[in-house]
Amino acid sequence: MAPLFSVLFRYLHNLSSLSIIHYLLILTLTILLFIYTQTRSSNPNQGLPPSPPSLPLLGHLHHLGSLPHRSLQKLSTLNGPIMYLRLGSVPTVVISSAAVAENAVRFHDTALASRPRSAVSDILFYGSSDVHYAIFHY
């Protein structure tokens, strides 16, 4: 093992400093790519409905064409009546079946009716219970 290191040291010693920087840059990029692929291998969407492939910043916006209702119908035939879409940075669950929507509203009505609380809405809209908050954030 020692002769290998001595040969490697002599080879690196003979190279110019610019080429050593290139080799270090390639090594660093290779390590970062390996780390990225290892962290992406675990499924981040565990517990979420199925979704089509997405782009990093756009999410699933590239799947919506000039007629979004037709695009969503095609996506629902491929992914089922419940699907997870990320529209930009907004996570969205799309339900495209009347029976599934009725089931969701019937059994999960409190989770669907809840709205995020914030300090601004607590101050301006009397603890998020004002009529304005109910109308415009429904």
TrEMBL record:
Mind telling me which residue stretches traverse the membrane in this protein?
Answer: 20-37
For whether the record's keyword set contains Transmembrane helix, the answer is yes
Q: Name one Pfam family in it.
A: p450
InterPro entries (UniProt xref) = Cyt_P450 (IPR001128), Cyt_P450_sf (IPR036396)
What's in the keyword line of the UniProt record?
A: Heme, Iron, Membrane, Metal-binding, Oxidoreductase, Transmembrane, Transmembrane helix
UniProt entry tagged with the keyword Nuclease = no
The organism's place on the tree of life at top rank? Eukaryota
From the Swiss-Prot or TrEMBL record, what is one GO molecular function term? monooxygenase activity
Q: Which family does it belong to?
A: Belongs to the cytochrome P450 family.
Under what name is this protein listed? Cytochrome P450 71A1
Q: Which organism is it from?
A: Rhynchospora pubera
